[in-house]
Every structure is written in structure tokens, then in C-alpha cells.
Amino acid sequence: MKEPMDSIVNTANGISIVIPNYNGESLLRDNLPSVFAAIAQWHGSVEVIIVDDCSTDDSCNIVRNMFPKARLLVNSQNVGFSKTCNAGMTMARFPILLCINTDVRVETNLLTSLASHFEDPELFAVTPRIIVEREGKNQGAVIAAYRRGFIRGGFVGMNEDLPSRENLYAIGACVAYDAQKFRALGGYSEIYSPFIFEDVDISYRAWKRGWKSIYEPAATVWHYSNATIYRDKTKHRWHQVIYFRNRFIFHWINLSDPAFVLKNILIILFRLSVSFLWLNFTYYKAFWEAAKKWRSIWALRKMEKPYRLLSDKDILTRTARR
């Protein structure tokens, strides 16, 4: 993602709020008022950029009529989460980028709580408590583990009292980024389109450069993630293919410790040799879809190599449960 000239205004406490939207008519009505209520409690500069990904509902009219202070960008075609967010981030003017999904309702202290951390020159991203009540999870705190050849991020329970800590990654549902670092990383990698793992990837690439992600429990948001895709078997299978494809891509781009790379390869080969026994053809399809992107994966891996300061082991040690 190219950085537009003079795109970042030199306002130390300025926040650009970027909200991706696709057919979120009811979500905009329900949740966007909470964002403007948080803005009202914020004493710095702010802008709201809503990027519509070719919605077929009345989303754009809702924004124009109910939230006229927001800047509305409309994609010329449906491109998915990462490209839609990148479009908004490119237009943002302020040093802090706050990405909020339309299915997130926020507390009024959100901006103040997150912005206070950006005096730290090593900070890349910060997330609040992100409560998913139907799952009983707090997605804001992500605990690292390395099991069966893959890096895994685990959410904590929604009632767990966890202090501020370093996070494996900052989930994209509600996250504040350092704009300069976000752009230095090239924004969300669009190889993961249409969705899943772009937020994991950019946080991990930031960690490799010594830029940390942290969890801030002083602010809370509620993530009303849509369960429809899991009730529709066709959509669920497609979702699973995208998930496993992007998990392969993430590891092939980012793993660098030799022992981690070797174990990942061996586990994948083993799974490929036995998955047919359980009729798990999703795994094969996902592997093939990832393998077809090998040239792009290798190019991204080479591009990131010169910037690696921290090892995989360093990152996992810092973000594991302590």
C-alpha cells in the first residue's frame, strides 16, 4: 500500500477511525452511535472514514443520512476485508489508525484509553477488551502457543481479570495502529483476501521488527460476530478452506526459526498423508489453494527477511501465558 504524500498530519493526538462495511445496514444503525459517543468524549482531532465494499442493502444511505460527519468511500467492486481497510487507511490523515468493525459497539472511553499508549516508540498496536458474549471469550487478549507445527493464538475467558500485557496479535475487529508503522509494513497483506489472518500477519510482521502489540483492559467493546456462516454448511466449508489456506500462507511467509520451519513442514506432510482416512478433503483443497500462491508467498518472505530483529521463539516467549 503506497503512502500518499503528506498523508499523516502532525497532530500528536489525532485519530483516524476506519470502518469497513458490507451490507451492514442494521449494524451501522445499532453500533455506529456508540462510536460517535466515544468521539464526543475525546479531546483530540478525529475523523471517521467508512469504506463500503459494494453493499447491496441501504448502507450508504444510512451513512449519508444518519452520520453525515463521516466520510464515505465506496469501492467500485467487492474486494474483501483487507483491501477495503487498506483503502480507508490510505486516506487517513492522523497518526493513530483505529479500525472498528460494524458489528462492534464501544465504550465512551475507548479513544482515550487506547491513544494513551502511543507515546511508546515500540508500540505498533493496542486492543481493548473485546467481549464476544455468545462464545464467552475476550478477543482482545491473545495468548501465544506453538503446537503441532503451528503458531496458535488463544483468547481468554470474558470474565478473566487479565492486566495489560503483550499480545501475540491485535485482532482486527477493534484495534488501534501506529499509522507510520502500519504503512511501513505495507498495510494489510492482500494475499489473504477476502478475509482471515491479515490482522494476525501484520501484527506478527511488526513483532519481527521489534514493534509490539498490547492488550489494554481499561476499555471494553462488544463484538457481535455473525454466526450465520456457521449455520450454512456451504458457507462453513468455504470458510474452512479460506481459514486453512491462509494459515498455510501465514506460516510460509513468517516462520523463520529453523526448528519451527522444519516441524511445520513435517506436520503438514503427515497431515497430507493421512487426512484422506477421515475424508478431510478440505485440508487438501486449502493446501492446493495456498500452494498456487507460492511465488507471491516467496516474494513476501524475501521482502520481510531484512527487517527481522526478533525470532519466532522470542515473540512466543513474550506473548505466552505467564
Percent helix: 40-55%
Structural class by helix and strand composition: alpha/beta
The CATH superfamily of the largest domain is identified as Spore Coat Polysaccharide Biosynthesis Protein SpsA, Chain A
Could you say which overall geometry the principal axes of the C-alpha atoms support?
Answer: globular
Number of strands: 11
* Whole-angstrom Rg: 19 Å
Level-1 CATH class name of the largest domain: Alpha Beta
Verbal overview:
This protein has 322 residues and is an alpha/beta fold. It folds into two domains: 15-229, Spore Coat Polysaccharide Biosynthesis Protein SpsA, Chain A (Alpha-Beta Complex), CATH 3.90.550.10; 230-308, no CATH class. Helix content is 41%, strand content 23%. It has twelve helices and eleven strands. The protein has helices at 25-40, 59-66, 81-91, 110-115, 179-184, 198-208, 228-231, 233-254, 258-274, 281-291, 294-304, 312-319, and strands spanning 15-21, 46-52, 71-74, 96-100, 104-106, 123-132, 137-147, 150-157, 165-167, 174-178, 212-223. Strands 1, 2, 3, 4, 5, 6, 7, 8, 9, 10 and 11 form an eleven-stranded mixed beta sheet that branches. Helix 1 links the parallel strand 1 and strand 2 (46-52). Helix 8 crosses helix 10 and helix 8 (233-254) crosses helix 11. The longest helix is centred in the C-terminal third of the chain and has 22 residues, at 233-254. It is globular. The model is unreliable at 1-11 and 227-231 (pLDDT under 50).
